[in-house]
Every structure is written in structure tokens, then in C-alpha cells.
Design goal:
The structure is a homodimer. Chain A has 3 domains: 5-133, Rossmann fold (3-Layer(aba) Sandwich), CATH 3.40.50; 140-301, Dihydrodipicolinate Reductase, domain 2 (2-Layer Sandwich), CATH 3.30.360; 346-432, Alpha-Beta Plaits. In chain A, 36% of the residues lie in helices and 25% in strands. Chain A is built from 14 helices and 17 strands. In chain A, strands 7, 8, 9, 10, 11, 12, 13, 14, 15, 16 and 17 form an 11-stranded mixed β-sheet that branches. A 6-stranded parallel β-sheet of chain A has the order 3-2-1-4-5-6, with helices on both faces. Chain A is elongated and about 80 Å long. The first copy, chain A, starts with a strand and ends with a strand. Chains A and B meet through α1, α2, α6, β12 and α12 of A and α1, α2, α6, β12 and α12 of B.
Chain lengths: 433, 433
């Protein structure tokens, strides 16, 4: 029997407390699977006295997580502090540089420093494992890194933020506004007091950055991601989507194109019949398109203490069994530099909602601008009327385009705004096949 | 650089040919990931001259797959022959006993001899890997064995046979009979000339046996599985399911109960809103319920050359990287003996379609029998009339019960048949939450 795997857990929020409980609860099975005992021996957090529903007296306590990471009697550090700098980064770097395995749920840290950290892990032949960093309990990291080794992945797309999906689901099902749903989400603990990180799409972008690297064998390049959030989505947009056979989802999408890898986060019209569109509430879902397997979809809880701890335990079990390779599948030196495909190249159909001045000739001007940019329209829908006809009144107009480029749409809409027939910034939502 | 992983492929049907092509196509990436070259060096099949769309001249040829399995210059044998005895078993046993890794897609072999084969692999510290044996390209084996290591799994359920799901989907969408859809499936190559293995539920049962062992840490016990197929499903059943908010799916279900592990394969009423019910056509889907992660669903192609080869390559990549543990997660000696929960104990609601003699008092007799067994009815639907009233005419009657046991339902229906008010064997379909 090999010596026990001694784990130090840095960060004891909801996930950290769940990890402590799960490692205890699963001790026998983990030992059976790994052929060695697995136990948490040390913990670190900001406040020792906070009630976490778990007895900490059996663990060595560290005020400083970096000291925990440097301790001689720990084999594996679980970093659950969060943040892309500061104590989290220091803890992970200290652990790796002192030859310890690292398990982390920290997508922000990976999005920013993933390449350098992976190099450190490879140099010392230790694990840097991060199943919990993307889509919570959904085993998408292992699937991309290991299960699809025989595939050339062409596309990864998914619902990676439960807060946004919860808000969009409620807006759709109950006809509520974004602000109403956000407030409810905050009250129920599904959204932070400052919701920007979630509803602005940035959390999705961090997760997408991790998945892109695994899927395409490229170095993480989070700065290349085009990010739009969901705060501009209105009940009318959701109603129109429904009528047209779509649901609006905030998707992270990474695609291999002739020009390189395109990464984008934005609200999307997803066909109701697609697996992704069925995913409601706080669930996450990821669809991976690849040459051999064609398409695989994984659905499950993307957040929460126990589901995220489940992903952390998956990594711990691998470390205990000695099952680890390069953090991103291939060694960092063999990862390609990311060739960014500029967002303007995205080709597909669009849903466009315009606030149009209600006077003769407005629609003709808009249609002409569209035609000038070779944009063909599948349908034009005018919903209702402004308060009254005449000067200054506006009406919402919905355009559905056939496949065209982002650049063409943006140019046509800029010109229509210049013509003075469109009063507010247009709502533009991509339609995914 | 370690020496190359030399692979022998035994069985060159559709999947075997895809494996040869994929290993060639992915050679560079597999080498980058594994840190060693991965190549097929030898093959074996019944007919050397058959055109498989792949050039075999670069591979050593064996007429006898067991001779390939015994060859000194092979490290890993991929068994794609099929069947639970004969050449497949001989090939796998020869490979393991001569210290070679084995990758197989053979669920029938595993269902019958999985425990003994796993023991052989463990004794020699080689891999016995079988991602391709259940749900084709869907990475459910790796998910159960590795990703959910932190969980106590409570239930595994899924659509594990694409042929059945294709037939049920077409019956539902086009109102066709079972026989009509089966003929189409045979014409399109989705069903065998002798379809019993698929439509009788036996293929699903083999796959379920493998998943049950992984999920619950018990020895494979395929004989314990209660198996019903889909050939008795009628267009009326599908129509009624639709009206009641369900779809009929052939599910394999394994559940941890107080009495042990219950394993069953049968047509099921699945709520339309569930992820499983959305899965149409030849796709497979598996939902895993577990304490920490709550519920994870995986959807993808369950058959076909390339998707199945994708699963084989996943195992090959793990072998090449040296990532293998006990075939069923825990060593065989630590797997529990399966405590069979008898099928009669299954508790849930039921859909019952009866062919009832159309005369006064028939329904009262049936209702009384139900009441005698404490079965409470949620609804009773009589659809249409027989050709005319009077003696001998029959009408279809649908009963929806609240939760009750299989034993109670069977007893009540036996008695109703004894009363002479029901003319044909009743159709009984379990309703899943």
C-alpha cells in the first residue's frame, strides 16, 4: 500500500466545506479505487471561527494559504480561494514550485495564467487539475482532455453560467423583465450583489477559455473572446424567439475556422429542438462537435457546493491513482499559438430588433442599407404600434436575416442609424443552427 | 521517449476499419498527448480480401485473432470481434494472460465474463478498457469510473439502443406500426435481419450490466436483469403517451434500493420535459443520479463506425499514457456481490392498456380488482368503441395508476383476466418520474 494522499484545502466557502464532507464520506471508496488512503490533513481560510457545518478540529489550520501550499507534509493542494491574482495565484504557484499536485476550480486564474501554471506543473511532473473550473459538476474537462482523444474537435458550445440561464428561463416562462429576474436571482442566492461578472458574460468567457484550449490544443487566449451579456434582452425578444421557434440562451462558443479559432460569448437564438435549448434554470450544458463522434452533449449542475465538489473529487481521485498527464492534454510546448479568427468573420443568420421611426419610407431606407451589404432577409415583422402615429413615434421592427457576416450587419445598421430612421441601439442576436 | 505502443486490432468490421483510419489520422496528436508513438502494427479478420476502404498492406496479418493476441511484438489488443464466447473470448483471454492491454467494445463478453476478465487484467497489471461497450461514442464508462468518484450513485438510466429509439421515434412522429418501422430500420441498416437482440431489449441489458457494475461497485450480474422489449408497443400507446405528456422510450434502469440493486430494461413513459425524452432517433442518452452531483445527462451517438471508434481511441489514449486502474473502478475483490432487488418490488406509477369486453359491469370488475390490491387510479380513459356494441365486442381502456408495486399490478390484472372481462394480455408500461 502506497502512503496516503495528504490533501490541503485552501478556501473554505461552500465548495470547500462540501469537499471536506465528501472526502470523509467517500474515504473507503476512494481508498479502494486508488489503492491508498485519501485524506484532508490541512485547511486554510480567512476566518477560522465561521460556522461551515463541518468540524475543522481534525485538520491542521493555516492562516496563510501559501504556507499551507509550502508545507512538507501535504501532497496535493486544493485551491478554492478564487481570483486571478493575490492569494489564489500565490497558493497555486507555491504548491507547484514545491512539487505538489494542484486541484483548482479557479477559471479566472486559469484564463489568465493557465499556460504558465501548466508549464510549472509539467516541469515538476505534478498534476494541475481543474475539472471544477468549467461547468461545475459536468465532466467536460475530462471528456475533452481524455474521452475525445481520437477526435478533431470542430466546435464547443454551451450554457456555462447558471445565473444567466436562470434569468433567461424565468424571463421566458413568466414574461418578466431582466431586472425583475435579476432581483429574484439575487434574493435566492443565484446571483451576486454585483452581478456584472455573471450577467455581463465574463464568467462564461473564463470557462470558455479553458475549454477552447482543451478542445483545440491551443494556448489559452481569454483576451481574444468577444463578450456580450444578457442585460439588453427584453421580454419582446423572448416572445419573438418563441414565435420563431427559438429560445434565447447565453452561449459560449469556440469554433475552428479557416482563419483560426473563433471564441465568443453572446445571447443566441437556439432552435427549440436542440439539446441546448431544452436546458432550463441553473443547469449547464456543453455540446462538443467533433469529426469521429459527431456530437456529444453533457448536461448537469454548473454550480453549487456539492456538484462543484464532485468535480474536485474527480480530480483528487485521479491524483490519488497517479492518473495525470499534461494539464491541457498535450504538453504546453506542443500547444499551438492561438490564431484568432476575428469576430467580424462570424457567418450565420441574425435576429435584429430595431426601434424604427414610424413614418413612410423608414423601412425602405433600412431595407436598402441591408441590400447594399448583400444581406438577404428571411422575414420582417412589425409588432404593434407606437403610442400614436406621426412624428417622433417609434415601432419595434424585427428582421431575420439569412446567413451573413457580423461585419455586414454592423455596417448596415450603422448606416441606418446615420439615416435617422432608427432611434435606439439595435438588438442583434445570432441564430445558431 | 518511451517505445511506441504497438496495437493489434482483431475484427475489421465497420468499427475496426474506423479505428485503423482514426489511429492514422490522429497519430501526431496521440503521440503528443501520450509522449510516445501510437500505431497499429497487426490486424486479424475473417476475410483478408474484403474491401474495407483502408489499405491493410502496412499491417502484419493474422488469420487467427488468438495468434495476434499471443504475438510478442504487440502491446495492446483491440478486440472488435463480438460475441460472448469463441474467438472473441479466446482473443481477450490470450491477450490478458500474455500480459497485454486489452481494449474491447464487446458488451456481451463483459456481461458474461467481465468479472473473470477484470481479475485477469488486475493480476497482470494491464488495462481492460471498454468505453465502447456501452452507449458507443458517449463517454459514460469514463464518467462513471472516474468523473463521479466523489459520488454515491443512486440510479443510472438511459436509452442504450439506437435501433429501438429510432423505431419508437418514427412510430411516434409518423403514427406507424412497429412492424412498418422495423422494416424501414432494416432497410436503412439500423436493424439486423434478426432484430430480436435489439428490439427484445437484450443489447440494452448487456450495456446496462456493464454500467451497473461501474455505478454501484458490484460484480456484473446480467442474469438479474428483467428484460422487456418494444415489439408490443402500438400506435395507440404512443398516442396516449403524447396526450398524457409522456414519450415512450426503451430504458435500461439500474437503481440502488434498500433491498439491493434493481436492474430492468423495459418500455417507459418518460415525461416530455425530461432530457431523456428529448432524445430522438438513433441517439443514446444516459442520466446518472448521484448524491453530490445530483444529476448528469450525457447524449450522443450510441453506434456507428466512427463514434464507436472514438470510444476505442479514448481507451487507447489512456493505455498509451499509462492511465489505467482497475477495470471496474475498484479491484474485483472489493466489488460487492450484487444483492438482487426483485423486480416485483419496483414501485411507481403505471400505464395499463386493457382490451376490455364491452358490456355493463366490466369496468366495475376491473376497478374492484385494482382496489383489492390497494392500487389507486389517477385516470381511466376509454378510447373509442369496438365495431359494434353487444356480446364479444371489445374496447381499449387505459388506466393510469398512482405509485404501486409491480406485484400488485400483476396480481390485479391476472385476476381481471380470470374474471373474463379482459380478452388480450394487458400492456403495462412503467411511468418514470
Amino acid at each position: 500500500m502506497t502512503h496516503p494522499l495528504r490533501i490541503g484545502v485552501a478556501g473554505l466557502g461552500t465548495v470547500g466545506a462540501s469537499v471536506l464532507k465528501l472526502v470523509q464520506r467517500r474515504a473507503n471508496d476512494l481508498a479502494a479505487t486508488a489503492g491508498r488512503a485519501v485524506r484532508v490533513t490541512a485547511v486554510s481560510a480567512r476566518d477560522r471561527r465561521r460556522d461551515r457545518g463541518v468540524d475543522l478540529s481534525g485538520y491542521q489550520w493555516f492562516d496563510d494559504p501559501a504556507a499551507l501550499a509550502a508545507a512538507n507534509d501535504i501532497d496535493c493542494v486544493v485551491e478554492l480561494i478564487g481570483g486571478d491574482e493575490g492569494p489564489a495565484r500565490q497558493t497555486v504557484e507555491t504548491a507547484l514550485s514545491s512539487g505538489k499536485h494542484v486541484v483548482t476550480a479557479n477559471k479566472a486564474l486559469l484564463a489568465k495564467h493557465g499556460v504558465a501554471l501548466a508549464r510549472m506543473a509539467e516541469d515538476r511532473n505534478v498534476a494541475l487539475a481543474f475539472e471544477a473550473s468549467a461547468a461545475g459538476g459536468v465532466p467536460v474537462v475530462k471528456t475533452l482532455r481524455e474521452a475525445l482523444a481520437g477526435n478533431v474537435v470542430t466546435r464547443v458550445s454551451g450554457i456555462l453560467n447558471g445565473t444567466c440561464n436562470y434569468i433567461l428561463s424565468r424571463m421566458e416562462l413568466e414574461g418578466l423583465t431582466f431586472d425583475e429576474c435579476l432581483k429574484d436571482a439575487q434574493r435566492l442566492g443565484f446571483a451576486e450583489a454585483d452581478p456584472t461578472f455573471d450577467v455581463g458574460g465574463f464568467d462564461t468567457a473564463h470557462k470558455l477559455a479553458v475549454l477552447t484550449s482543451l478542445a483545440f490544443g491551443v494556448k489559452i487566449d481569454a483576451d481574444a473572446i468577444h463578450v456580450e451579456g444578457i442585460s439588453s434582452i427584453t421580454p419582446l425578444d423572448l416572445k419573438m424567439a418563441d414565435e420563431l421557434g427559438y429560445r434565447i440562451k447565453l452561449l459560449g462558443v469556440a469554433e475552428r475556422t479557416a482563419a483560426g479559432v473563433e471564441q465568443r460569448v453572446h445571447p443566441t437564438m437556439a432552435a427549440k429542438s436542440s439539446s441546448i435549448a431544452q436546458v432550463m434554470g441553473v443547469l449547464n450544458a456543453v455540446t462538443i462537435d467533433a469529426d469521429a463522434v459527431r456530437s456529444v452533449t453533457l448536461i448537469g449542475p454548473g454550480a453549487g457546493g456539492d456538484p462543484t465538489a464532485s468535480a474536485v473529487l474527480s480530480d483528487i481521485a485521479d491524483v490519488a491513482r497517479g492518473l495525470h498527464g499534461a494539464p491541457f492534454g498535450k504538453p504546453v510546448d506542443l500547444l499551438d499559438d492561438p490564431a484568432r479568427a476575428p469576430m467580424q468573420r462570424h457567418e450565420g443568420g441574425y435576429y435584429v430588433r430595431l426601434t424604427v421611426v414610424d413614418r413612410p419610407g423608414s423601412m425602405a431606407k433600412i431595407a436598402t442599407r441591408m441590400g447594399d451589404h448583400q444581406i438577404s432577409l428571411e422575414s420582417i415583422l412589425q409588432k404593434g404600434k407606437g403610442p400614436r402615429g406621426g412624428d417622433g413615434a417609434t415601432v419595434p421592427v424585427i428582421l431575420i436575416t439569412h446567413a451573413t457576416s457580423e461585419a455586414a450587419i454592423r455596417a448596415a445598421l450603422d448606416e441606418a442609424q446615420g439615416d435617422g430612421v432608427v432611434t435606439e441601439p439595435p438588438q442583434v442576436i445570432r441564430i445558431e443552427r
